[in-house]
Amino acid sequence: MQSAARPGLILASVAVVQFMVSVDLSVVNLGLPEIAAGLNFTGAGLTWVIHAYALTFGGLLLLGGKIADRFGLKRILLLGLILFGLASLGGGFAQEAGHLVAARALQGIGAASLSPAALALLAVTFPSGKERARAYGIWSAMNAAGGALGVLIGGALTEYASWRWVMWVSVPMAAIALILAWRGVADAPPPAPTGRPDVLGGILATAGMTLLVFGIVRTDQYAWTSATTLVTLAGAVVLLAAFIWVERTTSRDPLIRLGLFSNRSVTGANVYNLFLGGAMAASFYFASLYLQRILGYSPTVAGLELLPFALGVAVGAFITIKLGNRVDRRTLLIVGGLVTAIGFAWFGFISADGSYLSDVLAPSIVTSIGFGLCLGPVVSTATVGVAQHETGAASGLLASSRQIGASLGLAALGTAAAERTGDNLTPEGLTDGYALGMTLGAALFLAAVVVAIVVVPKSAPEPAEQGTRDLVTD
Question: What is residue 5's predicted lDDT score, i.e. its pLDDT?
């Protein structure tokens, strides 16, 4: 595949894909009031514009990674892009609430297909060296830019055009990525299947992941200690435990080979990514609320004021690229995690009479540079020592850990902030809650640093062909 592929076009297509997926995680948020008015959403039904995407995206990532390995990275990437683009187009033409929710669910299915395939292509095309660091640095910058610009794009389109453009904006991005991938990725045949597909494992993993995300995202309506939440999460645990049992005992081609977890790079990267996802999802949430509710900025201005975060991530990613092979991934994970934790701790000192420069801009620069230092290395580490025919599964696992971490972190830190605020809905009370959420984000990154120190190997692993010899059996 590498001999006929065009690495530059592959990197460009993966960058556009990651930017698009990141944008769609946040682009609809500021348009929700207009969407509710335009499609007559009632009560909590509006939250399903967010939840439908999160559920299908998070619930199907493991399956999407396995499908990409089995049927070919290029084929699944192109099909995912087509589905994502068509769902975005249809969502913009929605005439009823159910139409938009269905379109968002289809977007999530498309994202769960294309995201692991895109990451796997990056791992296969840039297996080692400075080129790998550069590729993942660019990926990191696009990931952060999409997250930050998603809020701005959504607010501006809603305010100056229509909420429908919040959906349509993804169509040209999907088309561009489709053209780049069509031209850049070689038409290599997928590897020969090693056995019958593990249908039962796929069902259990998808059902368990979906139920887990479902239980987490509904904690805004049902408390963590409520019977509804406890039963839902218990059901998810049972399904996922059954999935692990099936993967250990099945005679079919497993959805994800448990022997992958004997690779310390894979295990360490995914646990690190879980903490990272939880902290970063909460940071955008608390920062946007602080800017609008406490400092009084409009949605569009608040979106603009979050742009330096994306620039800081780009700076951190550029530093990672320049370091190349001189600094190992583990060191970058440790240093990046510590810098990000310092930034979150600084956020923990926000006050009700604060200012944008001292309470948002300065800590966001520190946080974002640290994030840029560790984002690329954590993604790169997750496929070190993984055989080429399993890169899709490993990439799907990593994307899944980020999505679960984001859902769990936002729910947990949001709940802690709400409990700190309580009935004190004054600016001081709200700020105390936001500050606690940011401080807990610092704690999550410190936990990630401990994982990097304890779990991630100190030295670079062997190449994939050698590094996987000991991983053939569970």
Answer: 59
pLDDT in tens, 54-111: 778 877 888 888 888 888 888 999 999 999 999 999 999 999 999 999 999 999 999 9
Query: What is the Cα–Cα distance from 392 to 315, expressed in whole angstroms?
Result: 29
Q: Does one domain contain both 404 and 453?
A: yes
Sole residue written with tokens 């972190």: 409
The answer to whether the beta carbons of residues 309 and 144 sit under 8 Å apart is yes
Structure tokens at 42: 């009632």
CATH code of the domain in which 263 resides? 1.20.1250.20
The residues, any chain, with a CB within 8 Å of residue 218's CB and separated by 6 or more, are: 51, 228, 229, 232
Quickly tell me which residue has 């501006």 as its tokens: 156
Residues 264 and 402 in one domain: yes
* Whether the Cβ atoms of residue 455 and residue 271 lie closer than 8 Å to each other: yes
My answer on whether 247 and 333 are in the same domain is: no
What is the number of domains present in the chain? 2
Do 246 and 261 fall within a single domain?
no
152 found inside a domain: yes
Q: Which residue shows structure tokens 């946040």?
A: 26
